[in-house]
Amino acid sequence: MEKIFEVRNLFYQVGDTKILKDINLDIKKGQYLTVVGPSGSGKSTLMRILASMLSSTSGEVKFDGEPIETYEPIQYRQRVSYAFQQPTLFGKTVRDNLKFPFEVRKKEFDESKAIEYLQMVNLSADYIDKSVNDVSGGEKQRVALLRNLLFPPEVLITDEVTAGLDAENKDIVHKILSEFNQQGLTILRVTHDESEIEDSVDKIKIRNGEIEDD
Ligand SMILES: Nc1ncnc2c1ncn2[C@@H]1O[C@H](COP(=O)(O)OP(=O)(O)OP(=O)(O)O)[C@@H](O)[C@H]1O
Ligand SMILES: [Mg+2]
User: Fold this and answer.
1) Strand ranges (DSSP E) for the chain?
2) Is the CB of residue 45 below 6 angstroms from any atom belonging to ligand 1?
3) Which end of the chain is less congested by CB atoms within 10 angstroms, N or C?
4) At 150, which CATH number?
5) Can you give the pTM of this predicted structure?
6) Which residue has a Cα nearest atom 13 of ligand 1?
């Protein structure tokens, strides 16, 4: 399989603190890679670098064969989408959030598509008019995830996106992500969830800023 990411000798340092140390990693197109490791080990930092939201101190990241810095950030974000560990909703209503992916692409908002996506994550059609202040934590995570998926990227990075969800809604999210993965989406999933870790086929562990062999 073709490589979508090639990471070579990557370091990330803040002051004297080395947060990531000599990371080397290949990710294949279509892979569903689970990233595990203790809290504070550097998982989100690595994901933010791959999402081009943070620059490494040294080393190289290639996306689709080219250094990550050569891509135009707005276009890059449409190809590599990061679902945050602690998402925030913006604007006034859920609609404002689901409209956003259309706006950045200068497309007309497709309300029926937005509603269809809400229903996919177990939220009813009337949710679209719900105030962002009245949305629960677990609902917020699902709405935020839809922002990432309405126009599927090539790579989706999910950073503990199921952490606040009950078993039923976790399963819904797992099912959707599997379906997108089967259609070719590359997924990098950061998780502490025992059952997700057990179910994962491809897995890397980060400990103390380094990739640890199992
Ligand atoms: N800008 C920064 N300045 C100083 N320290 C930072 C900075 N960003 C991250 N860190 C530190 O780097 C380490 C790795 O953080 P990171 O968020 O990547 O961990 P994580 O593996 O995602 O943890 P968790 O599982 O709790 O989400 C932590 O010790 C964190 O405090
Ligand atoms: Mg994290």
Assistant:
1) 3-14, 17-28, 32-36, 58-63, 66-67, 80-83, 155-159, 186-190, 202-207, 210-212
2) yes
3) C
4) 3.40.50.300
5) 0.95
6) 40
Residue pointed to by tokens 């990471």: 7
91 lines ligand 1 (CB under 6 A): no
- Nearest-atom number in ligand 1 for the CA of 41 is 21
**Ramachandran angles phi, psi of 171, nearest 5°:** -60, -40
The DSSP H or E segment spanning 179 is helix 167-182
The domain tally of the chain equals 1
- Cβ–ligand 1 distance for 42 under 6 Å, the answer yes
Which ligand is closest to the CA of 14, given by its number? 1
- Coil, helix or strand for 16? coil
Range of the domain at 94: 3-212
* Tens of pLDDT, residues 4-56: 999 999 999 999 999 999 999 999 999 999 999 999 999 999 999 999 999 99
Contact predicate 212/20, CB 8 Å: no
Q: How many Å lie between the centroid of ligand 2 and the Cα of residue 202?
A: 19
> Taking each helix axis from N to C terminus, what angle separates 94-104 and 111-120, rounded to the nearest 10 degrees?
120
Pocket of ligand 1 contains residue 191 by CB under 6 Å: no
